[in-house]
Design goal:
A two-stranded antiparallel ribbon has the order 1-2. Helix 1 packs antiparallel against helix 2. By secondary structure, the chain is mainly alpha-helical.
Length: about 170
């Protein structure tokens, strides 16, 4: 029988993908934990999405979250794809002239939650990069990913005919 618990972390340490044991409050564990939280939020967002193309993109993003958590570099093609997706979504949207309040339809509100968790993950990885090597592709990808979630939220409100509230 496979058990999920190992008891190896009972004293406040955990094992990184490199095999190194570190404290559970280590900056790398914090960064990876935030990526895990983002992955869970993406999963929740997916329950409110019907568009098969968007669902496929979000599923691929979940895979990328696992790659980041596993300390892998991110191909620049993934960042480029996010940019292309954002450009395509923006074509249908009214020009942005004001700050947008997070919210709207449930899917858009959850996309905003993903955006803010992504920004925290980016901050965690920037902090981590001051003490450990962080692949620059991860920082670039996370920066673009938060933008993607912002544009996706706008697009979802547009599709569901929910007016954006601006400040």
């Amino acid at each position: 029988m496979f058990r999920i618990y190992t008891k190896t972390g009972d004293k406040g340490t955990t094992q990184l993908s490199t095999g190194e044991r570190v404290s559970k409050d280590d900056p790398q564990v914090e960064a990876i934990g935030t990526i895990d939280e983002l992955n869970a939020q993406i999963g929740l967002l997916m329950t409110y999405i019907e568009d098969k193309q968007v669902l496929e993109r979000l599923h691929n993003l979940q895979t990328t979250m696992f790659d980041i958590g596993g300390n892998k570099s991110i191909p620049t093609t993934l960042t480029t794809q996010l940019e292309q997706d954002m450009d395509a979504m923006t074509e249908d949207l009214p020009p942005l002239r004001d700050f947008v309040y997070p919210g709207g339809c449930r899917a858009a509100a959850l996309s905003h939650v993903c955006r803010t968790v992504c920004r925290r993950a980016e901050r965690n990885f920037v902090s981590l990069s001051k003490i450990r090597t962080v692949d620059a592709s991860v920082l670039l990808f996370l920066n673009r990913l938060s933008d993607y979630f912002f544009i996706l939220a706008r697009k979802l409100n547009f599709v569901y005919n929910v007016a954006e509230k601006t400040w």
